[in-house]
Specification:
Elements: H1 6-13, E1 17-24, H2 37-43, E2 53-59, E3 65-70, H3 73-84, E4 98-103, H4 142-154, H5 156-160, H6 203-217, E5 225-231, E6 234-241, E7 244-249, E8 254-258, E9 266-268, H7 274-284
Antiparallel strand pairs: 1-2, 2-3, 3-4, 5-6, 6-7, 7-8, 8-9
Protein name: Integral membrane protein
Amino acid sequence: MAGTDEDAIAAADDALYVLTAVLLTPAQFPSVLGDDYPEACAALGLAPLAEGYGLVLGQDGDGARWTVVIDDVSLVAVAIASWDCGMEYDLSPDERTVVAALPGWPLAVAVAAPGVPAPHDPDPELSDAPVLSPPDTSTWGSAQRRLGADEIALRWAVWREQIDDADFQDPADGAAKDGAPAGAEGGGEPSDGAGGEASPRHGGIRRVLAEARSYVDSPPPLGRVRSSFATSDARTLRADGPGWSMVARTDDIAFVLLDDEPGEVLPVGRGPELPGLLEALDKLAVRPL
C-alpha cells in the first residue's frame, strides 16, 4: 500500500502538528477524491474498507505537509464533532492505528502550525508515494464540479432562494417540467433561464436523470449516492456519476453540475417524476452513522 514505508510514517509521526481532519467513509468522504467511496480510496492508494478511515492533516517539525491515514474512525469523528461545536480536542492518534503516511494534503488547508516553517512538500526521499495536492480551482474539471456540488449542499438555502418556481412552469399550460435550462457562466450562480418548457431539450439533464434512475435498478458503487439530514421532514441527497453531480432535497428541487458545462448550475424542477426518483435514491443511499 502506498505511503506505508517506515521512513514516511516515522517522519509524519515525529511531532505531527495536527491542523484538521476529515472522514473517509462510504457516507462521508472528500468528494474531490472521486465520485464514490472506492474511487476516493483508490486516489490515496487505500483499500475500500467498509469501516473507512480517518485522514489527519498536519505538519511535522520541519513544516512538511503530511496526511496520516488511521483506522480509528470514531476518534476522528469525535474530534470533528468537538471542533464543530467550538470545543478543543487533542487529536493524537495511537501509532498502532496508523495505516499510511502520505506526503502532502489532498485538500486546501488555510491554517498552518505555529513555530515551524511554512507548509511545504516533504523530502522526496521520505516516501515513494506521489505528493498529494488540492485541485486547481482556476480550471474546471471533475474535482471542481464535485466541489461546486459540495458548496450547493452546504449553502442550500442561498442557492434555492435564487430560483423562482415560476421558471419551471410551461407558459402554455402551466404544467411543471422536470428541469430548467438556467445556469451561470463562470460565477456558478443560476440565472433566471428561459423557463421550464425548454428543459426537456437539455441533453445533459436528460442524461443525468436517466443515469440516476438506473441506480435504482442497478445499485452503483458504494457512496455514489449519499443521504444526510436536512430537516425533520427532508433529506439532502447527493448523487454523482461520470461527468455529473446532482444535489437535491427530497421535498424540493435538484441542482445539476456537468463536467462539460464549466461553471453552470442547472436547476431541475420537481415535475411529475423527480419526487419519486429522489425517494427511490434516498432508500438506497448510504447515510452517516
